[in-house]
Amino acid sequence: MQTILVTGGCGYIGAHTIVDLIEHGFDVISADNLSRASDNSLLGIEKITGKKIKNYQVDLTDKKATEAIFIENPSIVGIIHFAAYKAVGESVEQPLDYYENNLFSLVHLLNMAVKYNAKHFIFSSSCTVYGNPESIPVTEHTPLQTAASPYGATKQMGETIVKDTAITFPLSAILLRYFNPVGAHPSTAIGELPIGRPQNLVPAITQTAIGKLPTMQVHGADYDTRDGSCIRDYIHVCDIAHAHTLALQFSIKKNEEKSCEVFNLGTGNGITVLEAIHAFEKVSGVKLNYEVGPRRAGDIVAIYANNDKAVKQLGWQCKYGLEEMMLTAWQWEQSLAK
Ligand code: WQD
Q: Lowest CB count within 10 Å: 59, 67, 194, 338, which one?
């Protein structure tokens, strides 16, 4: 049996990826210390797939505890590494927590991948590594700018650590740079569970629409864009999830060692904040209570992907459009209110 270890498997993208892996015949285990997620996700995964997934509630910065997972599961042939802290603002307040958690866990996992021959290693990266790009849409060859936050720096350093490891050791590594994951599984059995007040746009929209938040702010409408608000590449979490399955299949089929490939995971469409809000209002029938406020420190004006490489080499096609992204996010928010 070939087992895939998904770290951060109880998290937003992790849980959706486990569902997709199961639906494509993979045997999966999770390692998640539940510091940023709930194991209720496992119930949601079981509701969708019928499969009970074992989660190892392990802190991956603990090398011995991490190794114990591999000793107990000699059938692990691949790792999809999601587990990391990912809040931009929090990373500025607590940089050392971010460097310790995000980098120590990665190094321990890579050591285990080498030691236990789990050669297929997929790393959760982010469009944040591009910083404020010199040109858009960004391709995988667009030069990386200085990261705008310690969070972004951990993703840039993480990519370097994985690349260097795959030069020396017989790993087949893949770096997946997500743009802005949004939405939820159509079943509403799993979805995004922000901790505290949501920093990201779409949960801020849905929490305002359902009344959890009295109002929300558009962080600036005086940018040099078509309507003054920032442009991002919003992509459905199920499209992101399926790209991981395709990347794993690509790595297994290629069966190369000492390789490291990078792929952009975005739709290729740049959407403004106000366009996203209007799309939400259209599909939900809810008039959103928002106000235009000052720009948010650290925001870049515009970024969206050139996704040709993932489309051509992974055979990846995005299935969800903006309105479906907003509809599934809204249905998930409504399911939480029940
Ligand atoms: C998108 C746009 C905001 C909230 C970050 C990380 C990235 C990834 C996704 C982890 C911006 C505007 C937002 C609000 C608003 N995280 N906005 N009002 O900053 O593009 O990306 O989260 O992987 O790595 O960098 O996403 O959703 O926070 O913001 O106007 O209440 O929405 O100013 O223009 P971002 P976001």
A: 338
Nearest to 108 by CA among 72, 142, 74, 83: 83
Task: Determine if the pTM surpasses 0.90.
Answer: yes
Check if 151 is active-site.
Answer: yes
Distance CA(186)–CA(208), nearest Å, equals 21
Whether 324 contacts 236, CB under 8 Å: yes
With contact defined as beta carbons under 8 Å apart, do 229 and 300 qualify?
A: no
Same domain, 115 and 240: yes
Question: Which of 82, 178, 200, 280, when mutated, tests ligand 1's pocket best, judged by the most ligand atoms within 8 Å of its CB?
Answer: 200
- Structural domain span for residue 28: 3-183+234-265
Q: In sequence order, which residues have a C-beta less than 8 Å from that of residue 84 and are 6 or more positions away?
A: 8, 101, 102, 105, 106, 124, 154, 158
* pLDDT tens column, 180-228: 999 999 999 999 999 999 999 999 999 999 999 999 999 999 999 999 9
- How many structural domains comprise the chain? 2
